[in-house]
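Hey L., structure's done. Input below.
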Amino acid sequence: MKHIALLLTMICSTVTCAQETPELVNKALSAVGGRDKLLSAFRMTELYNSGALPEPEGSQKRTPRTSVIVMPGRWEVGGRERGKEPAKDVVRAWALDLLVDPSSEIQPIAELTDEETACAGLQISGSVTPAMKLYFDQQTHLLRRVDWRDDFYRFSDWREIDGLKYAARTSLFKLRDGKPWFHHEITGLERVQPEE
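Output:
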């Protein structure tokens, strides 16, 4: 009898998890403006720097570049394709493209508190290897953090372009010790035709 009760509990938990996943996905998509507003092809101008702290505006250490990205896998910098590059998968997470990819397997994961922000989590596999963890602010449902491979990415400075909200700043940290090592700021964003 105990085995049957345990089995029923496991089945109920699985059903609950399966029902929670689409709800969080829908909330995350709605928070940025809806599925039809997601970026599929875009040009971004950006500033980035390595190091422990983001460099102040005007610093010579902030490197400018212009990228053209076409989901799911094209990323050109200065007209040259970046090739096999893990950052492409992080951009897909940032743009929520992984949430709408039919090959994504999405499961709810334990909540996380990131700098006093309560976050609900989803793990995505199938469309990305290894599996990636996405954490969404429980109040705004905007993407707060991605844990993947040996790093975690924290997103902030939300801006808007033609009805789409996007995080303009990303900071990367090492999972093992939480030390920051890379900072990125989008200074311009525009949609383009995929062939650009």
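The chain has three helices and eleven strands. The longest strand covers residues 180-191.

-- N.
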